[in-house]
Design goal:
heterodimer, A: mainly alpha, two-stranded antiparallel ribbon, 13 helices, globular, B: alpha/beta, 2 domains, six-stranded mixed β-sheet, elongated
Chain lengths: ~290, ~300
């Protein structure tokens, strides 16, 4: 099979996945909540113009609204897992998988097509929310983004997409090992909760295990003093590698003790492992 | 080159064999009926041919292509109608067809879609969502999707199950038409009268292995050796009376049904001996007629002999 043909098949499956999501009630519901939240944040900032200048005197930029928006990115991570968790299992449950795989299509193309479709729709939702929030803020505060700001926004969208990709891959992995869409969604949510819990646990244990010799006032960098096991627990959660704030606020070169490039590598490796496992498992599976 | 050929095809789940040492040969241009009781291994065989399940051992090929390695090539030349075909319910029949047509990579897809819709008689409903389709229409859409790639081989799993008589008839007529178009058809079915009507060759599978195979004519002839079968319509009878008939010289076998005894005999003169024996045994005979053996008789006999052979 030529690469060109396989890419074309992946696109066809991805487009169908996007259309399925656009029509899906759960995507519309959660996506709408997030979008409204984004506009609400922008609206609050617009109404309380002083808020930004008080909080960041002399440093306020139009993209500050995105750092607030980023605080709610957990909603998108959950949505990413949920929309991906039944992509394969629903085809098995309703037996459409037999129609699909009786055509000259590689199984990995099905996985990659579903992945691409979910990623595109999630990235689109984030981009739409972020740009809408920026527009609202700009119109009501007069803080119009500069080209440099827009560059930061673009970088944020890209890194956020990488984060979505990891959670989508997690959802797809769950979907390949189950046959019931409801079960796969439940397992996906439990996996998401589990990762969040591990992160919280790591931070709790890290806080308890940190030895503040001589007393430290620099609480922001306490992560550096966590014991290694606590750091590892935190790093297991993909959302701990969310570097959007660092990109937007120039808060420093590190997130959770890792430089930006290391966080990106961690996300890429996790993505590769999850997608690779999905492809191998699905390829070996009897239907 | 055979359309389908398997050698020692085996699929094992733990210690259980779903298919065991299956050797099949399906000649091009024929309609092959793949029969067997529930759980005999028909669907597993079809799944292995389509690449949905991997053989534990043995080989299988379609048009000379290995199912393990050449599955993409095989799917280009094979149409598949699953048992109870499933579709994307919220999409129209046409959108379903277009999606699969795109995946096949068909050029002139619109033209081809119109052709297959016309072939299966769905022209009037292709713009409706699939969830509004009747069972018969879904079966037609399944066949339309199977035909999209202009296949040389059609694999159909229970194509008429659940259809009303008109729907079954229409599908049979379609299959006959495909045969005229020189498409090889491999179908599994429980509707034995249909298989008898449309198939050239029949294979019977039991517990994963092929227990009988042959052309319909040879098959039926082989079952009773082309000897007559007399059907006695009787008031009532007991096992002892059946055994009495079986003991008569020239009687090859007796099948007891609901108010009937089918007696396979060496030649027509034995009919009189059977009639006398039954009357003397107190059985009231309401009618006697010669019947042709059916595929159902052949199927049941093959299964029975296989079971007896196993017990022996």
């Amino acid at each position: 099979m030529t690469l060109e043909k396989e890419v074309r098949e992946i696109q066809i499956i991805a487009v169908k996945e996007i259309m399925d999501n656009v029509r899906s009630k759960r995507f519309i519901f959660i996506g709408f909540i997030y979008f409204v939240l984004a506009l609400l944040l922008a609206g609050i900032i617009a109404m309380e113009y002083g808020f930004m200048t008080d909080m960041y005197p002399g440093q306020s930029t139009p993209v500050d609204v995105l750092t607030l928006l980023n605080s709610f990115s957990f909603i998108l991570m959950l949505l990413a897992v949920v929309i991906a968790a039944d992509t394969i299992s629903i085809e098995k449950r309703y037996r459409t998988i037999y129609q699909l795989l009786s055509k000259p299509v590689e199984r990995r193309s099905v996985i990659l097509g579903k992945f691409e479709g979910c990623l595109a729709i999630m990235a689109l939702l984030f981009m739409l929310s972020a740009l809408s929030a920026l527009a609202v803020t700009a119109v009501f505060t007069g803080l119009y983004p500069t080209m440099a700001n827009l560059g930061d926004v673009f970088a944020s969208i890209l890194t956020m997409a990488l984060l979505f990709a990891v959670y989508i891959a997690l959802g797809i992995l769950v979907s390949t090992i189950t046959k019931n869409p409801l079960v796969s969604i439940i397992i996906g949510v439990v996996a998401w909760l589990g990762l969040t819990f591990i992160d919280v646990l790591g931070n709790a244990l890290g806080g308890l295990g940190t030895d503040f010799v001589g007393g430290r006032e620099d609480l922001i960098s306490t992560f550096d003093f966590y014991p290694l096991y606590a750091k590892v627990l935190v790093w297991i959660d993909p959302s701990s590698h969310n570097i959007v704030n660092q990109l937007l606020t120039d808060a420093g070169p590190v997130t959770n003790g890792l430089p930006i490039w290391a966080n990106l590598v961690m996300l890429l490796v996790t993505l590769g492992v999850l997608l690779g496992a999905s492809i191998v498992i699905f390829d070996k599976q009897d239907l | 080159m055979n359309a389908i050929e398997t050698h020692g095809l085996t699929r094992q789940y733990g210690t259980a064999f779903a298919v065991k040492d299956l050797n099949l040969k399906v000649r091009p241009g024929t309609v092959y009926g793949f029969l067997g009781p529930n759980g005999a291994g028909k669907s597993t065989t079809i799944k292995m041919l389509m690449g949905f399940a991997r053989p534990t051992s043995g080989t299988a090929s379609i048009m000379g292509l290995d199912v393990k390695t050449d599955y993409l090539e095989i799917r280009k030349i094979t149409g598949y109608l699953p048992e109870q075909p499933a579709f994307y319910e919220d999409m129209t029949g046409r959108d379903n067809l277009e999606y699969f047509g795109d995946l096949i990579g068909l050029k002139n897809l619109d033209k081809r879609m119109n052709e297959v819709f016309s072939q299966v008689g769905l022209e009037g409903r292709y713009k409706d969502k699939v969830k509004t389709y009747s069972h018969g229409m879904r079966q037609r859409l399944g066949i339309a999707i199977a035909l999209l790639g202009d296949p040389k081989l059609l694999i159909m799993d229970e194509p008429t199950t659940g259809l009303d008589p008109q729907g079954s008839h229409d599908i049979r007529e379609l299959i006959k038409k495909f045969k005229k178009d020189n498409i090889t058809i491999f179908l599994s079915s429980h509707q034995l009268h249909e298989v008898q009507e449309i198939c050239d060759t029949v294979g019977i599978i039991r517990e994963g292995g092929l227990i009988a195979e042959g052309s319909i004519d040879d098959f039926l002839r082989g079952i009773e050796g082309n000897k007559p079968i007399m059907e006695f319509t009787v008031s009532s009878f007991e096992d002892a009376q059946v055994r009495l008939v079986e003991s008569i010289k020239g009687v090859r076998g007796v099948t007891a049904g609901n108010g009937t005894l089918k007696v396979a005999i060496e030649d027509p003169s034995v009919t009189e001996d059977v009639t006398v024996a039954l009357v003397n045994a107190g059985v009231r005979i309401r009618g006697v007629r010669e019947v042709m053996p059916t595929l159902e008789d052949a199927f049941l006999k093959a299964i029975r002999e296989s079971q007896e052979g196993e017990q022996a």
